[in-house]
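Reviewer 2 asked us to include a model.

Predict the structure of this chain.
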Amino acid sequence: MSLFDWFANRQKSEPVNHKQQDREIADGLWTKCPACGLMAYTKDLRSNQMVCLDCDHHLRVSSDERIRQLIDANTWIALDEQLLPTDPLEFCDRKSYKDRLRETQEKTRLTDSVQTGTGQLDGLPMALGVMDFRFMGGSMGSVVGEKLTRMIEHATLRRLPVVIVCASGGARMQEGMLSLMQMAKISGALERHRQARLLYIPVLTHPTTGGVTASFAMLGDIILAEPKAMIAFAGRRVIEQTLREKLPEDFQTSEYLLQHGFVDAIVSRTQLKKTLAQLIQLHQPLPVTPSVVPFPETRPLKTPSVGS
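Predicted model (structure tokens):
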């Protein structure tokens, strides 16, 4: 009996239990790649940092997963977890902003769309901020701006490099002008960090758009991006209507931005930790030494000779 005949007979004698198969997929044992359709074992995907084993598509990951990927075990110290968003404008569309916040917090188990803290990356101390697109599209509100600003100031005080993993739809419309003010506040903290001659690296992931792109996402000393990430300020239709011309299909991708000088390097997620470690090592800050004012040069006095 050939191998093919044996396999065919086995399939007839042992029919596929579709209910069991559906249950395993529903339980998260398998994950379908949205790019190529490959059904991959979720455990294998996670061991490959949620990058498709077939087409190299970078699946979206949570902020918790991103922290596990970058930070050494047992070194993460979260900052400002007690900060909670409020509803200063009492905003309401189809539902109130308060209800949206409560529902999203219960669903994601996050207080807002960014996590900040300090930890070690391959033994190198650093400050890390990670945006989470699951929380209202990673939108930037007052809490996001405050947490990132405090993290940057904390890093400046302790002379730590800063890495921010960006994933956002832009400023949070439910907070109006208050959300736009965060662009200037974070940018000011980054300028003080730069004046202290410290390293800042933003990592642009899919998608990074709006006010985040217009501020701290593009203010890095070295700007990294994941492959095929959408990086933009406004939507294609708005830009084409403003310019009155047709734009290339890929003009909002990380590859296009790399060609035109907006991004310094495209780094696969599987190589990101190694790349960040190399960059941080190369840009270690010089130790701060107290300024010493040199005494003026002294010369021995000439003693007059006897009888002069």
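Residues 291-299, 303-308 have pLDDT under 50 and may be disordered. The radius of gyration is 26 Å. We have added this to the supplementary material.
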